[in-house]
Structures are given as structure tokens and as C-alpha cells.
Automatic annotation (TrEMBL):
Natural source organism: uncultured Campylobacterales bacterium
Full protein name: Helix-hairpin-helix DNA-binding motif class 1 domain-containing protein
Molecular function terms, GO-annotated: DNA binding
Region (Disordered): 82-110
Domain of life: Bacteria
Helix-hairpin-helix DNA-binding motif class domain boundaries: 26-45, 55-74
Length: 110
């Protein structure tokens, strides 16, 4: 069950902003747990292989279970951060709309 949840989180992360097969060097470097050397290894690996999930990174030298777990957590945190930012934007727009409605109502009363 835990593995299924982890795979779901990874798939969700890949679906919303990160595809290891097309991610740029900068995008890969932004992931906690991936440095210059690992980015170069990913870029080299994906020339001849497809990366379907973070788990596939274990096929690349330097990526063990711990580093993949760190990457999975980083992706999960990124999703949470995006959700939080989106919610804040929505709430801000809602408040602007309420204010505009209130101002319109006030203008109509004149």
C-alpha cells in the first residue's frame, strides 16, 4: 500500500510539472537531492532510456534508494507548494471580486 501511494505521488509530480525525459538541466537541478553530477548522468541516461518514474533513476549510477526517496519527497513538497500558491491566488481573486461587487453595489445606491 505504501509503495502504491509513493508511486501515485511520483506520477502526480511528473504529471504536474516534471518529466524526467524532457526536463531541462535547470529544472533537474531545482530538485532537492539532484546536483550537477546526477543531472549529467540523467541527461546521458535518457539518451538511450526512458524514465517513467523516479524509481527508474535507480538504474543510474549514484542513485540509490535513499536518493530516490529524497527526490520523491522533493517532488511531493513541490506539489504541496504549488497547491498552496494556487489556493492563495484563488482566495486573492475571490476577495477582489467581493470588493468589486461591494463597490458596484455602493455605486448603484447613489
Amino acid at each position: 500500500m505504501k509503495r502504491v501511494l509513493i508511486l501515485f505521488v511520483i506520477a502526480f509530480g511528473l504529471a504536474f510539472g516534471l518529466d524526467f525525459n524532457t526536463a531541462s538541466k535547470e529544472e533537474l537541478l531545482a530538485i532537492k537531492g539532484i546536483g550537477e553530477k546526477k543531472v549529467e548522468r540523467i541527461l546521458e541516461y535518457r539518451k538511450t532510456n526512458e524514465i517513467n518514474s523516479a524509481k527508474d533513476l535507480t538504474n543510474i549510477k549514484g542513485f540509490g534508494k535513499k536518493s530516490v526517496k529524497k527526490i520523491e519527497n522533493s517532488l511531493k513538497d513541490g506539489i504541496k507548494s504549488k497547491k498552496t500558491k494556487a489556493k492563495k491566488k484563488i482566495n486573492k481573486k475571490k476577495n477582489q471580486l467581493k470588493k468589486a461587487k461591494s463597490d458596484l453595489k455602493e455605486l448603484k445606491s447613489f
